[in-house]
């Protein structure tokens, strides 16, 4: 019990703050990445009654433009995490529609488990799975097409911008690995 | 024995401050807490050390050729031989060329102390007190009478880690390396062992 409480103290240290140049590149990357997806969404896709911009892409932007070296931010995780989580989310909604609370919990927890098992852990994937359950009519009507668009296509656009922007500064390189 | 070995060779310790200093030097947000990195480093360092200890064997670090004393030499010949070579000890071979024991300063000191364990300084003190030279007691004796036998030997495949453990366990300073017939092919001395721990960049690579 004592040990249990002792562990809550967190006696480690926080990593240092990054340089100003790093902050700028994170800003530029995420601005361009979200701009690209949002432009396509509002100028093109939205008019067709479809969607490309997804809330969880905001979280992905933190990782792929702000923590470029992180294993969680690599292409395998970005694409795999979103796609697997989307499949889990849509399935959870369709099977457990009658009890939304259960559908929401099953979607997120199963998405995390599946991402672990496939070595594609990507935190925004949890949001992608949850949105499939709580996203409302515009999401529900897509069915499994949700996996392709907005999820897979949107993630690909974000990845393309990351590959370009993250390899411009000398101090950055992306990705660390593909598979 | 391996426990003793690991306690005397603990991994190079780094502090969280060292890690934070490194993180500041490396551009970009590194997605690991300094404490976790330190843990990864320590385990990886121990792993690397073990890999090197396991990959280097006696034949990689031994001195060749090995100079041996013959069993039929008398102590004056043996002492002269060691003095000429600048050795503090050497393996002893019989007429067939097989190792039968090791002769070292320790054995000479023991003989001069008439069987009692004697140190070099005790002998210096004895001589300076004009009690005569104790070395005269070595006259007319043969190597066979004072050698440490049987010799502790090892094959060429013994790993560096195992050799280190043996040195500590048996309190020895040299280990003759023998072929399957018991003939010497080399010798691992304490100096060889220390040198093999001096890691080069090429050796650290997997």
Properties at a glance:
heterodimer; A: 179 residues; mainly alpha; 66% helix; B: 206 residues; CBS-domain; 2 domains; three-stranded mixed β-sheet; two-stranded antiparallel ribbon; 11 helices; elongated; disordered N terminus
Write the layout of secondary structure elements.
The complex is a heterodimer of chains A (179) and B (206).
Chain A: H1 2-6, H2 20-45, H3 55-66, H4 75-96, H5 100-117, H6 124-134, H7 137-140, H8 145-165
Helix pairs in contact in A: 2-3, 2-8, 3-6, 3-8, 4-5, 4-6, 4-8, 5-6
Chain B: H1 2-8, H2 16-25, H3 34-55, H4 58-61, E1 69-70, H5 75-85, E2 89-93, E3 99-104, H6 105-112, H7 120-128, H8 143-146, H9 160-170, E4 174-178, E5 184-189, H10 190-197, H11 201-204
Parallel strand pairs in B: 1-2
Antiparallel strand pairs in B: 2-3, 4-5
Verbal overview:
The complex is a heterodimer of chains A (179) and B (206). Chain A has 179 residues and is an all-alpha fold. Chain A is built from 8 helices and no strands. The longest helix of chain A is centred in the first third of the chain and has 26 residues, at 20-45. Chain A is flat. Chain B is mainly alpha-helical and 206 residues long. Chain B is 48% helix and 12% strand. A 3-stranded mixed sheet of chain B has the order 1-2-3. Chain B has a two-stranded antiparallel ribbon with strand order 4-5. In chain B, α2 (16-25) crosses α3 (34-55). Chain B starts with a helix and ends with a helix.
